[in-house]
């Protein structure tokens, strides 16, 4: 074998060796990325209002912290559902993620009284809720909801602000236990009747996500309607309901 041929073979071997080493080195980041630790543990939600007692017209910031185990969740969908006392007018506030699982929204309130808050947290695999309150002005707190015996669950009925006659929408009820966890396996019905009408319609709801019960529905006529969410679970002696009034256009 002449000198030129030996030199050519040597060069080919060196190139092959460099390519092989580069290929192996290039695979490491992908392998490292694949093996990154995913958050583990139970999804938890905490809430506070800042301040929890404010003057009328002053801003109130809603703050929620969302964690899985000890890791802050940064890509959840978070909403604050807020209403005053026994009012059926519930307002939804989409939250903005700030950092490390902290989400916020804010507003000011001109009416004095005790306000209720439910934090709704949605991830790819879970739905979690948490409750809280805050005070505006000096008006005393009002009782809300209707319960049989000791409270075993919190009920929240979701309706569109102005449903239209003949247009389908989703009746939805969120049910959670006293620890803020979704209550699953309950018997849930929607009772619907038009104001002044003695005929009441009862509709069975289906559970989708944990603690979320819904049914598609449309109102046949315009007018004022009452919608009552009934929740029963005999195994824990639960029978509770909550009612809202809605105007159909």
TrEMBL record:
Coiled-coil regions listed: none
UniProt-listed InterPro entries: Ig-like_fold, YtkA-like_dom
Annotated YtkA-like domain residues: 51-120, 150-230
Keyword Signal carried by entry: yes
Keyword Signal set for record: yes
Assigned keywords, A-Z: Signal
Chain positions covered by the region annotation Disordered: 24-58
Lineage: Bacteria, Bacillati, Bacillota, Bacilli, Bacillales
Gene3D superfamilies per the UniProt record, alphabetical: Immunoglobulins
Signal peptide: 1-24
Record protein name field: YtkA-like domain-containing protein
A Pfam family this chain is assigned to: YtkA
Highest taxon of source: Bacteria
Organism, scientific name: Croceifilum oryzae
